[in-house]
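User: I'm preparing a small set of examples for a lab meeting where we compare how different chains pack in three dimensions. I only have the primary sequence for this one, and I'd like the structure in token form so I can line it up with the others. Please keep the answer compact; I'll paste it straight into my notes.
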Amino acid sequence: MRILVFGDSIAYGSWDAGGGWVERIKRDAHLQTIQSEGMNKQQVINLGISGNTSTGILKRLRNEIEARHSANWPFMFIITCGTNDQRMEDGIVETPLDQFEENVKKIIAIAKQYTDNILFIGLPPLAKPSVTLRTSEYSDERIKVYDEKLQSIVESSGLPFLPIRQIFEKTGIKGLYCYDDAHPNDKGHELIADTVGHYLKKKIITTDYST
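Assistant: Understood. Below is the structure token output for the 211-residue chain.
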């Protein structure tokens, strides 16, 4: 299986010294391939781009997929978006909620042309109510609204959705974030990797993502 992961800086792995939650999943996929002596090959390709929005993912989605298409490698897609869509600059939201909904529906429509094996990941909260990165303001309350909208769209399309906010809140947000209060630290990425890994347990053997 060839797993393509689409997302933003958190999917990319900022700022985890271990490479991020996708890299942790990738290492485990390699381990499964080795342990099966190539009988159960797994590839994980990180296509997360810092700052990406649903608009950005939609624009590049088909090209990214086509560039990696192979009859020998059935696809699975893991997709997450919304945190950067809700960011605000000069009082204007990057992607209005109705446009976000339209983008996500189009992303789903394109993804379904290649596979039914599609997983959406929810959005982690911020470490505090509001964070400013460069000139953009991020609001945890808006992130929650976009996260709920994402879940509604995905589940209405008959696809699985893995929530992250509730897991972070249950674990305790303090200690899960790096210096900017927006990006998870090593422990935060480990928690996401664990959550995704449990979902993928029938395809990728989950181990210890803390290393």
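A couple of notes for your slides: The two ends are 24 Å apart (CA to CA). The chain has one domain: 2-199.

User: Perfect, thanks.
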